[in-house]
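fold-stage: in
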Amino acid sequence: MICPSCRKETPGSPASCPFCGAQSPAGAAPARRWSRPAVFSFVLALASPLLGLIAAVALAGVSGLGSVLAPVAACLAGAVIALGLGVRGARQVRGNPAQRGFGLAVAGAIISVGVLLGAAAPSLMLLRLGPYGVPGAINGPVILAARDGDEATLARLLEEDPTLVRARDNLGRTPLHWAAANGNHVRSVDLLLAKGADVNAGSGGGPDVGPADLNAVVPRVGAKVKAEIAKGVTPLMCAAASEGENSEAIVALLLAKGADVNARNAWGLTAMEVAERAANHRLAELLREAGRHP
């Protein structure tokens, strides 16, 4: 054969030219190719949070548990697949000298584990949520109707089962708590009171449940909601914390129906103090005056 470097003829097909030492094409080491599982693992591991973000954006207008579960599920699915590809890629490269990408596969697997751990916290929080996107799916339909101000559904449910007016979720909150906390649905609050809702019903939530929980499950109310969800929280306290456009009318309605303005929750706060913490100054003044002239 002819050496491509020195152009001299060499006998046979040696691995290298005996004259110039150049490596012949036949004896050249094959080019190492990137392992596809390793590459896909690394790319997918980095893209997993993006998958969750895309799902969140796509479901931005959807309420309920699905809008929360889908982004987390998308992120977890991407991370699990990336982890599997990373392990497969590492094994493939390790046993095949013609391929490379061992470090990429390991990096993909490590990133995947980090994504899985990062998504563990919201996943555990979802275990507390019922199918209606509120803590505890106990009496979910009536709670959801009261929260969203779905007066037609609320009226139908109460007509079918009048005892639902006293229904409670797993934190002891009644439909009146949810309707009052929204701060927009005066007619729903009035309907519940007309059906016999206890205007001074105290919630049964534990002291470990704080303002963040109410912000999480009543997103439409806004970031200023600071109601203290603990034992003894009344619908008046929920309304006092709301920044809904009709919160003042709801507070006035509850007071007119006999709401106890001096009641305190487990943290020793009255409705007026809850309103002050939420920076609802007009509501705080209204409740202060009601306390002076019960």
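fold-stage: in (second)
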Amino acid sequence: MLTINVVTLFPEVFEASLRVSILGRAAEQGLVRYRVVQLREYTHDRHKTVDDYPYGGGAGMVLKPEPFFEAVEDLRPGGGPPIVLLSARGRPFSHRDAVRFAVGQQLTLLCGHYKDVDQRVADGLGAEELSLGDFVLSGGEPAALCVLDAVVRLLPGALGDHESGLTLRRAPVAAELYPAAELSRNGCAGGIVERRSRANRAVARGGGGAVDARAAA
């Protein structure tokens, strides 16, 4: 069973999403276990302070490293990958990452907020920094939910349809050839393979290259 840990300032963001649809059913079937913890529980002052001025100076406030260190140690003693810090600085999250996480035993997601997270968090925990794309979110929670969904639906039995799982793995390749609207109408594996074959035939006939092949499909 895969265990997914989430460290966040806003656990309530995850409450509904983890109870419904594929994420909820996967937990009910014992395929995955979610542990969502409040970062403030790992502070030791009366105000439960989680932010501070950046180490080394600079404007704004960042989340301190100490609460993250304690949270990760509590969730998975001894640490160890994969630990993911959702960050606008990170490389884009991909389907390849989702597959890698889905075949593991644990995944820990760290959600930032405010201006940023102290760089010592990523350095000290050996965390991977991942983003959803070339844009900035107010916090890491929406990104963490996207990662959760992409990973959990790959677990054997999560979709309840073997062919749906196969289609999911082919989708990143198919999406390079066909618009999203077409994929949604022809989302079964057979439709994707047939449309790919038609595109290949168009290229073979000298249809003007990949752009014309997409149009011909």
